[in-house]
């Protein structure tokens, strides 16, 4: 089974602090990591490979430094890393990104499955996975939480939707975007790291895959960011402190009255 | 032909139109008024009667394209996408709005790619730019820490998914009876792709849809163990709400993933959000800070959750919540 | 020991010295100052009054008054201690340094910083991070503890293998003596043998010899790169044997080497729902290396990892970014929490033995565990032989019985440590919690000298009385 996993390098926002006064993010010391939601796709890919054999190619579009993300995926157990890089990709929105990745994937040869994270934690659009499937015209299965069966030419999956889980059947090749429930990502091992460090990455430019200039980067992107603002999230709430029986009773009464004021009870 | 008019993508399930469809009409009405253009709802489903579709008219749509087909009974992205693309090519809307639901967020990118259209995800504000008449789409990014306003100057249609519950649903206005037009769309059978098949549905009875809930009672690491969610269950039950959780609680398997609220889970905008034993990591706030009212209960007075709370109790939740439950019981709240 | 109560008259005098808002008598507020991180029902005690002075001069006046009136004074930092050091066992005055929380100077030419005692330890690091510096006195409670308490307890933590404990970074102290004099000890001098090194005597004196009002601390270049290795071993012996090997054969001093026994790792992983293959492991090491060059740090990590595999480690996991590092450290950090879910009553210990003695110590702990039928997970800082053997009460044992069991089991635990050349406490201190074991377990000559030092500093025994030992 040949699997392709597109991933994204994102800023690690776990320890980000906000500057209270300016409402901006304190960026110093923020490192770049593999999009946490992509790890579930990577883990699923590795588990499938372990079960059915095959090869996993992970691909990313980004600056040369994004190779760190590819190497982390290789350390976990992917076989090959493809870096799509060049200044002509700068300013790509989800349309232009999907286009470039889809075209690159076509060049990579035959595949059975494309696995993607549900979305990236920075842009939070969730549009590139569906976008790639749309370009490649292969079945798109989003929000996948479980693979029930997989055969040579088809698979059955569960899709997490608002009301429950849909069971869908689709032919291969197909593209899946997966949610957290699908796997527990493994930690890279020393042996994995060593292998990843030595691995030769495939580096592709726009020219290598004969992309249309007009569809690349900012030029190919329909959307434009026109304004960035910093919302102030702080609300001036009232606080009560519980330290003894008396203050406990007061707080609980106030809780009830508050719900009444808000017409909840 | 010039692109004009606003479309909203209505959603239906089991022969019933979903509430988010009416929220989109609230958005659409405001924008169409500004542009002085027609507001159209697209309803792809099966067994939806014209009377049912009339409700979209009563709530503000001028026109409804209704397509009923067994292939459209459930959301299959390729089928929906193909029909929608044919409609777009034929009628050329300037703006298409869909809900940022599991179907909207799959359908819209699929369509936008093929139309080379601009698409903005999960918008919380929409407006029209004065001179250009372009759609201004504002959405939270980087975990809700910034708001980005995005537009599509050159490409049409302009597409956006809109965060569910970020606005009130449009109300029924009976004076609109007979003022709209319902068009039964005659689709081409070849539009149905047939590759993906929905073969079953598993409805987890206990899994409430936290995104639809008016009231969410959420717990975090401070709950200490799975069994302690009983406390929140009781409170949620009394308030007619549902329970949610922070990533840490989900990671510890105290509650299942559909309950996760935050950057790597769901975004909720309920009327009331109660956070118990949740410190308020930036990723969690991203998923709930647009709630109308927020109440926080936490041991640590420095916890970030208090910064976004309208009302906070600093103290031991294991003392406080049982007292609250008891008081509500006395008050006859369920 | 007979102390006088804090009367209305004394309260008036305190108000005169400190102002009304710095003299707290509201019972609800006093409660906060009646305990630290030790179990409140076992060690807690209410003060009669809490004062929050803002200068050494005020403290000096208070100490003179306390000597005159024979009122005990207990100095207090953030209250994150684990031995009862800041608890006013005899009531009287709790002197909280919370309002003395200024960074007085950052001296970039000498790479030193002058701090008031109420500065939160880690906030220092926030302040100097951009200049590429850091303060290495780094206990596990770094996010909450005050620098004053950190020094008074001579705290250790997870980075001590490479950086040592807090005392190593203390260059100078200003203290108020128990009798109320203000004195400067040490200073910005790297070398100083002018008489006894009294500042190092104050370090780790648990607030019994003086009240720290100012500290000059040494800063180090901030390591920018860090790699963690989580290594699974089949048994404790092979894990512990790695510790000296890393330094001798590897030629590397890691930042820290944390150890977790089978019981600890199992409970923590279950609690966190962590899917690492921990079931196979008899012991786990968490090894951290840091430095300034990516390549160097990666190479060091690789060298250590290779040595571990060579010595039969089951698996070596590598965490070189914040996400994965947080994941591996979560396993270590959540052990106590995981056991609290099982039983909220624990006795968190910090015995210390020569590193090589750890494998010998473990069967002894197993023996104690079996004998008293309690779980004793063992984890901590293997790299410096400092282990958090933690006695966990069975949920169905009643409290009175537990206290008895705890005392007996602790006694045996300490004895086991001593027998192997170890001692009672590596980083938490004696305080009131371990005092009862000092008499039998510590050399009487040494204990006698300690008492004489105490008496010469504090003739009326009013500063934090009852801590470490009782003066008869």
Automatic annotation (TrEMBL), chain A:
One of its GO terms (molecular function) is electron transfer activity. Residues 22-213 form the Electron transfer flavoprotein alpha/beta-subunit N-terminal domain. InterPro entries: ET-Flavoprotein_bsu_CS, ETF_a/b_N, ETF_b, ETF_beta_N, Rossmann-like_a/b/a_fold. CDD domains: ETF_beta. Its cofactor is AMP. SUPFAM superfamilies: Adenine nucleotide alpha hydrolases-like. It holds the Pfam family ETF. Belongs to the ETF beta-subunit/FixA family. This is Electron transfer flavoprotein small subunit. It comes from Iocasia fonsfrigidae.
Automatic annotation (TrEMBL), chain B:
Its cofactor is FAD. Coiled coil: none annotated. Pfam families: ETF, ETF_alpha. Transmembrane segments: none annotated. Binds 1 FAD per dimer. Residues 6-196 form the Electron transfer flavoprotein alpha/beta-subunit N-terminal domain. The keyword Nuclease does not apply. GO terms for biological process: fatty acid beta-oxidation using acyl-CoA dehydrogenase. Belongs to the ETF alpha-subunit/FixB family. This is Electron transfer flavoprotein subunit alpha. PANTHER family: ELECTRON TRANSFER FLAVOPROTEIN ALPHA (PTHR43153), ELECTRON TRANSFER FLAVOPROTEIN SUBUNIT ALPHA, MITOCHONDRIAL (PTHR43153:SF1). GO terms for molecular function: electron transfer activity; flavin adenine dinucleotide binding. It comes from Iocasia fonsfrigidae. Keywords: Electron transport, FAD, Flavoprotein, Transport.
TrEMBL record, chain C:
Residues 43-222 form the FAD-binding PCMH-type domain. The lineage of its organism: Bacteria, Bacillati, Bacillota, Clostridia, Halanaerobiales. This is FAD-binding protein. Its cofactor is FAD. The keyword Oxidoreductase applies. Pfam families: FAD-oxidase_C (PF02913), FAD_binding_4 (PF01565). Gene3D superfamilies: 3.30.465.10, 3.30.70.2190, 3.30.70.2740, Uridine Diphospho-n-acetylenolpyruvylglucosamine Reductase, domain 2, Vanillyl-alcohol Oxidase, Chain A, domain 4. One of its GO terms (molecular function) is oxidoreductase activity. Signal peptide: none annotated. The keyword Flavoprotein applies. It comes from Iocasia fonsfrigidae. Keywords: FAD, Flavoprotein, Oxidoreductase.
